[in-house]
Amino acid sequence: MYELYYQHGKNLFRSTRASRLYKWTAVRFTFPTHTAIYIYYISRSHHQGSPMAGIGFEHKREKFTSAFDEDEPMLLAGGGSGYDGFEKELPPTAKRAEEENNQKQEPTKYITKMMEEKVSTAIPERSPQPPTICEVPEDIAEGNEGAYIPKVVCIGPLFDSKRETASMLRLERYKWRCVRKFIVGRHRAAGTLESAAVWSAEVHAPLLRECFDEMMRLVPRIRASYSSISLSSNKRDTNVFGDDEKLALNMLLDGCFVLHRLLKYARTGNGGGDDHDDWTLLFGRCWVWGTVKRDLLLLSNQVPFFVVRKLFKLLGSNAGEGEDVLVHGGLQFFSSLHPQPLHSAPIACHDVHHLLHLLYLSIDLPPPPPPDDSPESNKQPWHAAAAAVPSSELTRWVPCAKELEEAGVRFRPRKRGAAKSFLDVSFRGGVLEIPPLQLFDYSVPLFRNLIAFEQTYPTTPGRVTAFAIFMDCIVKTSEDVRILHRSGVLVNHMNGERDATALGFFTGLCTEAHTSADRNYLAGVMEEVVRYQRGRWPQWRAALVRDYFKNPWVTTAVVAGAIGLALTALQTFYSVYGYYKPHN
């Protein structure tokens, strides 16, 4: 016989026999050795007439189960020194039974308690400055997850679990080389980054520690740059970043790697120069740097730009060199990827959130529609159409290229001098002008991540998304692709069958991406196109083309019939004219 104390709710109970306990009762004993012993099941056993109880214990996160009877009272001594406290630990089924019982007996109290728990654990309010780096929403990435995942280099904490994979290890080692070159180069009189410089712990370690300490001081700001939703992703551990030291270390490594690439392109223009052995370090992957560019433009694979700026001040700046060299290096770095020549207007370094944002800022976006009462509004035919229609009634759709061509709309590539960027679309006099759009294999992740950035960052104008929606309407079939190819609007350099790859590029490009009609900079263009296509003559022309000019044979037959009809009419005229003509 022994005593067992257990707790149910706020009440403490005592039992003289373990057999009197209910099946759902559980008691937890916590020992100073960090070993927890708890009763997880109680039942009567008919074996030799003695009561049996199941017991489980946990030691260093390993769980074990066993059984005991009345001959082992020390494990359940109610007032002994074998434990320093206990708490109720119910099995999952018992917890559900208790919740259902409480819900039936006191529904109001139960609901109130449930609401208090939900509110207390809700996501806290965000700071006035929204995070700039986040995971791509699942509904946007669905079916195209590969366009948002790095292939050769991980940047930032959101893909930290991939750092030790075989495809990433080579560049992870290269990051340490970048750190060494910056540290050693900082101590050289000329400030150059010599690959053969000798490391000295006594000389160079203090600067390395200083850089790490600076990263530690930036940790709160770094965490605020990433979306709080990413901290509790179901795909990863709740603590994505790990401890502060690990986060600071990764920021130091990734920041030096990004800084190294930017300075190379800023100082040499093409990425050559001081690192003549970059390709030999990655022998067997000679084209890896093209993939690196692709990875550095992924939304979730970013490092805050203020980290790069801080490391530039500590390690990378030469005499008389300002922060604008980072922006210049970034524009040079992405020049081969940009659909159009880069934006020439200056971009302030402190306005850049990360590398993808820098590329976004370099796209010369068309100006927003002027107010209705401004003088400029009368000069913009596309704005006049949008201004005449309430925003709730603005069209969100345009016909495909084939239907527009049948209605008499002509497609024309807009000249580079007239177009500020690939987004600058215009429609005048039945001519739809679209800047030439060149498609490469990297265009898919580039456009998708630009759209994902607009969908996750609230202050962007959303014009890349609007352009993608517009092109998704224009291109529906392979025939639409051929029309744009023939007109010079679309140039496809992607691997594979030309029309199929181009069609696949536009299909689903803006899946689950949204933009309101009143914020759509192409709303006026779309309204003008639809209005033109619905005109009486374009509809007649479209019906004529659709019914009588489908193929060359039908066209030939129609033309021959028309000529025959004309000759018959002419013959009839002369016959009648000769009959009524007066004789001289």
Automatic annotation (TrEMBL):
Transmembrane domains' residue ranges: 553-580
UniProt protein name: Uncharacterized protein
Keywords annotated in UniProt: Membrane, Transmembrane, Transmembrane helix
Superkingdom classification of source: Eukaryota
Upper lineage: Eukaryota, Viridiplantae, Streptophyta, Embryophyta, Tracheophyta
Pfam families, per database record: DUF247
InterPro entries the UniProt entry points to: DUF247_pln
